[in-house]
Design brief:
It comes from Halocatena salina. This is Metalloprotease. About 70% of the residues lie in helices and about 5% in strands. The protein is mostly helical and about 220 residues long. It folds into two domains: about 10-120; about 125-218. The protein has a two-stranded antiparallel ribbon with strand order 1-2. Helix 1 packs across helix 3 and helix 1 packs parallel to helix 4. The longest helix is centred in the N-terminal third of the chain and has 32 residues, at about 50-85. The chain is globular. It starts with 13 loop residues before the first helix and ends with a helix.
Length: about 220
């Protein structure tokens, strides 16, 4: 199913690159429709005009914040899995991507772009937990990267990107640390309750703070 990565080398198959690109673009489109209803209504013909400039700017911001947050989250899983001797590749879920775009157009938000699947060498519960927690921690780090824009950027595109980048990445971290279903939190709590409690608490508190005081900028 996957091409072997030798010696911990990070490699991408052609299919994986296509899946990453499709997920990145689809997420940008879905969030553009959700955050800018004038773009969605214009596309549907409800307003009689399509705000092309607004659509392009919002798409770029969404792909550079939301899209990057989702994809780097998944790539963090891949990198750590390969570090532990696993074979790992991202696979997009095209049904869920189409659903995300359709729901975004209708004014709802749901995104499950795909996942990194890994197999091969057996890993310990600790290693499996580290593979899982790498995604949420990456989102926390990305929020820190975007935060200076919230503080220093003037009103405009950079401030909007900072607000969206901070809020979405913190929400992604908190959501993925929920200990249910296929989410990362379930794997992490199976390894270490202490690590789970620390990462989940920090993510959840910061996510609430971001929603209340940072906003989404669009």
């Amino acid at each position: 199913m996957y091409r072997q990565q030798r010696g911990g080398e990070i490699r991408f198959s052609g299919r994986e690159l296509r899946d990453l690109g499709a997920a990145w673009l689809a997420l940008g489109i879905a969030f553009t429709f959700f955050f800018r209803r004038d773009v969605a209504f214009g596309l549907l013909g409800a307003t009689g005009q399509f705000p092309l400039d607004t659509a392009v700017v919002t798409l770029v911001i969404s792909m550079g914040t939301v899209g990057v947050g989702f994809l780097l989250h998944e790539l963090a899983h891949k990198i750590v899995a390969i570090r532990f001797g696993r074979v790992a590749e991202f696979r997009a879920d095209y049904t869920m991507l189409a659903l995300a775009i359709g729901l975004g157009l209708a004014g709802f938000l749901f995104a499950a772009p795909g996942a990194v699947y890994h197999a091969g060498r057996e890993v310990t519960p600790r290693q499996n937990g580290l593979i899982a927690v790498a995604g949420p921690i990456t989102n926390l780090l990305l929020a820190a990267v975007f935060f200076p824009l919230v503080v220093v950027a003037p009103d405009g595109v950079l401030l909007q990107a900072g607000q969206l980048g901070v809020s979405v990445n913190l929400i992604l971290a908190a959501f993925n640390m929920l200990p249910f279903g296929p989410l990362d939190g379930r794997t992490v709590i199976g390894w270490s309750i202490l690590v789970f409690a620390l990462v989940f608490t920090v993510s959840a508190v910061l996510a609430v703070w971001a929603v209340l005081f940072v906003g989404f900028g669009l």
